[in-house]
Specification:
By secondary structure, the protein is of the alpha/beta class. The protein has a single domain, classed as Rossmann fold, CATH 3.40.50.450. It contains eight helices and seven strands; from the N terminus they run E-H-E-H-E-H-E-H-E-H-E-H-H-E-H. A seven-stranded parallel β-sheet has the order 4-3-2-1-5-6-7, sandwiched between helices. Helix 5 links the parallel strand 5 and strand 6.
Length: 188
Protein backbone atom coordinates (compact mmCIF):
# COMPACT_ATOMS: atom_id res chain seq x y z
CA UNK A 1 0.00 0.00 0.00
CA UNK A 2 1.13 3.54 -0.80
CA UNK A 3 -0.32 6.31 1.31
CA UNK A 4 -0.30 9.98 0.26
CA UNK A 5 0.33 12.16 3.28
CA UNK A 6 -0.57 15.83 3.12
CA UNK A 7 0.91 18.00 5.86
CA UNK A 8 2.52 21.26 6.76
CA UNK A 9 5.70 22.65 5.28
CA UNK A 10 6.20 23.96 8.81
CA UNK A 11 6.25 21.97 12.05
CA UNK A 12 3.70 24.09 13.90
CA UNK A 13 3.80 25.60 17.37
CA UNK A 14 3.46 22.38 19.38
CA UNK A 15 6.29 19.79 19.31
CA UNK A 16 3.64 17.05 19.43
CA UNK A 17 2.90 17.64 15.73
CA UNK A 18 6.44 16.64 14.72
CA UNK A 19 6.46 13.79 17.27
CA UNK A 20 3.27 12.36 15.76
CA UNK A 21 4.53 12.84 12.19
CA UNK A 22 7.61 10.79 13.16
CA UNK A 23 5.45 8.22 14.88
CA UNK A 24 3.16 7.83 11.86
CA UNK A 25 6.12 7.54 9.49
CA UNK A 26 7.74 4.88 11.67
CA UNK A 27 4.54 2.83 11.94
CA UNK A 28 3.95 3.12 8.20
CA UNK A 29 7.40 1.69 7.46
CA UNK A 30 7.00 -1.05 10.07
CA UNK A 31 3.73 -2.11 8.43
CA UNK A 32 5.10 -1.97 4.88
CA UNK A 33 3.12 1.13 3.90
CA UNK A 34 5.00 3.37 1.47
CA UNK A 35 4.87 7.15 1.71
CA UNK A 36 3.80 9.41 -1.16
CA UNK A 37 4.20 13.07 -0.24
CA UNK A 38 5.00 16.55 -1.51
CA UNK A 39 8.71 15.85 -1.79
CA UNK A 40 9.99 18.57 0.52
CA UNK A 41 12.61 18.28 3.24
CA UNK A 42 10.98 20.99 5.37
CA UNK A 43 8.31 20.97 8.09
CA UNK A 44 6.16 17.96 8.83
CA UNK A 45 6.74 16.80 5.23
CA UNK A 46 10.42 16.29 5.89
CA UNK A 47 9.75 14.87 9.35
CA UNK A 48 7.41 12.11 8.16
CA UNK A 49 9.69 11.24 5.21
CA UNK A 50 12.77 11.05 7.44
CA UNK A 51 10.90 8.74 9.83
CA UNK A 52 9.74 6.43 7.03
CA UNK A 53 13.26 6.21 5.61
CA UNK A 54 14.91 5.76 9.03
CA UNK A 55 12.61 2.82 9.73
CA UNK A 56 13.54 1.16 6.42
CA UNK A 57 10.49 2.23 4.42
CA UNK A 58 10.10 3.76 0.98
CA UNK A 59 9.27 7.41 0.34
CA UNK A 60 8.13 8.80 -3.00
CA UNK A 61 8.18 12.58 -3.36
CA UNK A 62 6.35 14.67 -5.94
CA UNK A 63 7.53 18.28 -6.16
CA UNK A 64 6.87 21.08 -8.64
CA UNK A 65 9.90 22.41 -10.52
CA UNK A 66 9.32 25.82 -8.92
CA UNK A 67 9.95 24.36 -5.44
CA UNK A 68 12.77 22.12 -6.66
CA UNK A 69 14.50 25.26 -7.94
CA UNK A 70 14.32 26.71 -4.42
CA UNK A 71 16.21 23.66 -3.11
CA UNK A 72 13.27 22.46 -1.04
CA UNK A 73 13.33 18.87 -2.34
CA UNK A 74 14.28 16.02 -0.03
CA UNK A 75 17.44 14.43 -1.43
CA UNK A 76 17.35 10.95 0.15
CA UNK A 77 14.07 9.61 -1.22
CA UNK A 78 13.32 6.30 -2.88
CA UNK A 79 12.10 8.33 -5.87
CA UNK A 80 11.59 12.02 -6.52
CA UNK A 81 9.18 13.05 -9.26
CA UNK A 82 9.63 16.64 -10.47
CA UNK A 83 6.50 18.00 -12.15
CA UNK A 84 5.56 21.28 -13.81
CA UNK A 85 3.03 22.64 -11.31
CA UNK A 86 0.78 21.98 -8.32
CA UNK A 87 -2.00 20.51 -10.47
CA UNK A 88 0.40 17.89 -11.84
CA UNK A 89 1.73 17.28 -8.34
CA UNK A 90 -1.71 16.43 -6.97
CA UNK A 91 -2.59 14.29 -9.99
CA UNK A 92 0.68 12.34 -9.75
CA UNK A 93 0.27 11.83 -6.01
CA UNK A 94 -3.30 10.61 -6.56
CA UNK A 95 -2.11 8.17 -9.23
CA UNK A 96 0.66 6.81 -7.01
CA UNK A 97 -1.38 6.52 -3.80
CA UNK A 98 -3.86 3.95 -2.54
CA UNK A 99 -5.22 6.38 0.08
CA UNK A 100 -4.83 9.87 1.51
CA UNK A 101 -4.12 11.22 4.99
CA UNK A 102 -3.90 14.79 6.24
CA UNK A 103 -1.68 15.55 9.21
CA UNK A 104 -1.80 19.04 10.73
CA UNK A 105 -0.99 21.73 8.21
CA UNK A 106 -2.18 24.91 6.56
CA UNK A 107 -4.32 25.85 3.60
CA UNK A 108 -2.39 23.64 1.17
CA UNK A 109 -3.01 20.61 3.36
CA UNK A 110 -6.73 21.38 3.55
CA UNK A 111 -6.95 21.96 -0.19
CA UNK A 112 -5.25 18.64 -0.93
CA UNK A 113 -7.34 16.49 1.41
CA UNK A 114 -10.58 18.21 0.42
CA UNK A 115 -9.85 17.62 -3.26
CA UNK A 116 -9.11 13.92 -2.64
CA UNK A 117 -12.26 13.59 -0.50
CA UNK A 118 -14.36 15.38 -3.14
CA UNK A 119 -13.01 13.08 -5.85
CA UNK A 120 -13.96 10.08 -3.70
CA UNK A 121 -17.45 11.46 -3.08
CA UNK A 122 -17.95 11.96 -6.82
CA UNK A 123 -16.68 8.47 -7.64
CA UNK A 124 -13.48 9.51 -9.45
CA UNK A 125 -11.65 7.09 -7.15
CA UNK A 126 -12.57 4.70 -4.34
CA UNK A 127 -9.54 5.34 -2.15
CA UNK A 128 -9.88 6.20 1.53
CA UNK A 129 -9.34 9.72 2.85
CA UNK A 130 -8.37 10.41 6.44
CA UNK A 131 -7.52 13.04 9.01
CA UNK A 132 -4.78 12.20 11.50
CA UNK A 133 -6.37 14.25 14.26
CA UNK A 134 -3.30 14.97 16.38
CA UNK A 135 -4.24 16.62 19.66
CA UNK A 136 -7.70 17.48 18.30
CA UNK A 137 -6.21 19.64 15.53
CA UNK A 138 -9.09 18.89 13.16
CA UNK A 139 -11.93 19.18 15.71
CA UNK A 140 -12.94 22.71 14.54
CA UNK A 141 -12.96 21.52 10.93
CA UNK A 142 -15.09 18.51 11.86
CA UNK A 143 -17.53 20.88 13.60
CA UNK A 144 -17.79 22.82 10.33
CA UNK A 145 -18.40 19.59 8.41
CA UNK A 146 -21.16 18.84 10.93
CA UNK A 147 -22.65 22.25 10.22
CA UNK A 148 -22.63 21.46 6.48
CA UNK A 149 -24.57 18.30 7.21
CA UNK A 150 -26.98 20.08 9.57
CA UNK A 151 -27.76 22.64 6.86
CA UNK A 152 -28.32 19.85 4.28
CA UNK A 153 -25.24 20.56 2.14
CA UNK A 154 -23.57 17.23 2.91
CA UNK A 155 -25.07 13.79 3.49
CA UNK A 156 -23.97 11.77 6.49
CA UNK A 157 -22.77 8.92 4.26
CA UNK A 158 -20.12 11.25 2.79
CA UNK A 159 -19.03 12.41 6.22
CA UNK A 160 -18.76 8.77 7.26
CA UNK A 161 -16.39 8.05 4.38
CA UNK A 162 -13.76 10.30 6.03
CA UNK A 163 -11.58 8.29 8.43
CA UNK A 164 -10.66 10.26 11.56
CA UNK A 165 -8.14 8.82 14.03
CA UNK A 166 -5.57 10.08 16.51
CA UNK A 167 -3.41 6.93 16.71
CA UNK A 168 -1.26 5.71 13.78
CA UNK A 169 -1.98 1.98 14.07
CA UNK A 170 -5.75 2.55 14.29
CA UNK A 171 -5.51 4.94 11.34
CA UNK A 172 -3.69 2.44 9.13
CA UNK A 173 -6.03 -0.37 10.19
CA UNK A 174 -9.11 1.64 9.25
CA UNK A 175 -7.57 2.68 5.93
CA UNK A 176 -6.77 -0.95 5.09
CA UNK A 177 -10.37 -2.00 5.82
CA UNK A 178 -12.05 0.94 4.09
CA UNK A 179 -15.21 0.27 2.08
CA UNK A 180 -16.40 3.21 -0.07
CA UNK A 181 -20.07 4.22 -0.18
CA UNK A 182 -21.92 4.23 -3.48
CA UNK A 183 -20.86 7.12 -5.68
CA UNK A 184 -22.85 10.33 -5.36
CA UNK A 185 -24.61 10.49 -8.72
CA UNK A 186 -24.94 6.91 -9.88
CA UNK A 187 -27.19 5.78 -12.68
CA UNK A 188 -30.28 3.77 -11.96
Amino acid sequence: MKLAVFCGSRTGSDPVFAEEARRLGTVMAQQGVDLVFGGGHVGLMGTVADAVLAAGGRAYGVIPQHLQDRELAHQQLTELHVVANMHERKARMADLADGFVALPGGIGTLEEIFEAWTWAQLGFHQKPCALYNVKGFYDPLLAMVGAMQAQDFLKQEYIDMLVVEDQPRALLERLAGYQPPPEKWRRG
